[in-house]
């Protein structure tokens, strides 16, 4: 018997990430090749015509799994009964900006959308915030939505998967190993240059990749800055922020959350439960495994002095961002 369709909301549907994302969701790459979807597309009033154009193209693909779609500029409609919500719609940064420079402008979007999710979404909705600065925007959406008492804080996540995938590619190139053989990477903290891509536990076919590379200077002077500043390097090269790789990471994040990571570690920005000394509630990149629609933080990892310094550094930035939006949430 055919499965019941899953309602998927995508905000910023007329944007560049939206254009890389929607066709892959509709073709079954996110929720499975046997899972029909209904797309609920939210964008601003002035973008509705462009959203209609994207919907025409979606129709023209004749995707067997696309069971329906709507376009709206009303969050109450877009989030009604939604089971998976991808919060992409927000202003991207330009050259010379940091992601946190977007906070004042973008934060309000996430109070409005958080409130709509809190009132109208399916109570088990899985929310991924992509719009930057994504950790703090997820924090805002979580804080606003959970006031309505229907959706739990743990349902709000932020996208660190792009950083995870970027780090995997750099490690594969440096070690000469296949990217698919690399296991047990984590990117701790904020989706910002302060993030800490921690490769101490990475293995490839049983070999420790840090030992294979055996070059701590490369770690500090090349690997960490390359991963941390990759978003800016793409803006510099393309004149626009990453889009297809961001959409790909969003698909990876939700697919693993819904369908399971088969015991492998993946990085998700999630509300801390206090693990590893990260204050409860902060949205922080953690290593998790996923099964049955739930994520679980990988426990028991040794945190050496270098790692603790890096984890505290990225935490401090998140605490500053949180303080910056305290008024908005009061
Ligand atoms: P874009 O400018 O191409 O598209 C943004 C879309 O969002 C536009 O269609 C705009 O009309 C819409 N929008 C703006 N405010 C909205 C609102 N209140 N409700 C609904 N829609 C709204 O931008 P993009 O390149 O698609 O990037 C979107 C966001 O994703 C940016 O904030 C960018 O920095 C972020 N991003 C995050 C990551 C990550 O790894 N977390 C990666 C890449 C980009
Ligand atoms: C990225 O990492 O590519 C995105 O967050 C876009 C940006 O502003 O860097």
UniProtKB/TrEMBL annotation:
Reactions it catalyzes: (S)-malate + NAD(+) = oxaloacetate + NADH + H(+)
Keyword ATP-binding (UniProt): no
Residues binding NAD(+), per UniProt: 12-18, 43, 106, 113, 130-132
Lactate/malate dehydrogenase N-terminal domain boundaries: 6-145
InterPro entries (UniProt xref): L-lactate/malate_DH (IPR001557), Lactate/malate_DH_C (IPR022383), Lactate/malate_DH_N (IPR001236), Lactate_DH/Glyco_Ohase_4_C (IPR015955), Malate_DH_type2 (IPR010945), NAD(P)-bd_dom_sf (IPR036291)
Pfam entry (one): Ldh_1_C
Entry keywords, A to Z: NAD, Oxidoreductase, Tricarboxylic acid cycle
Domain spans labelled Lactate/malate dehydrogenase C-terminal: 161-321
Record-listed E.C. numbers: 1.1.1.37
Catalytic class of the enzyme: oxidoreductase
GO biological process: malate metabolic process; tricarboxylic acid cycle
Annotated catalytic residues: 191 (proton acceptor)
Residues the entry annotates as binding substrate: 93, 99, 132, 166
Sample GO molecular function, one term: L-malate dehydrogenase (NAD+) activity
UniProt family annotation: Belongs to the LDH/MDH superfamily. MDH type 2 family.
Task performed by this protein: Catalyzes the reversible oxidation of malate to oxaloacetate.
NCBIfam families in the record: MalateDH-SF1 (TIGR01759), PRK05442.1 (NF003916)
Name the UniProt record assigns to this protein: Malate dehydrogenase
Gene name for this UniProt entry: mdh
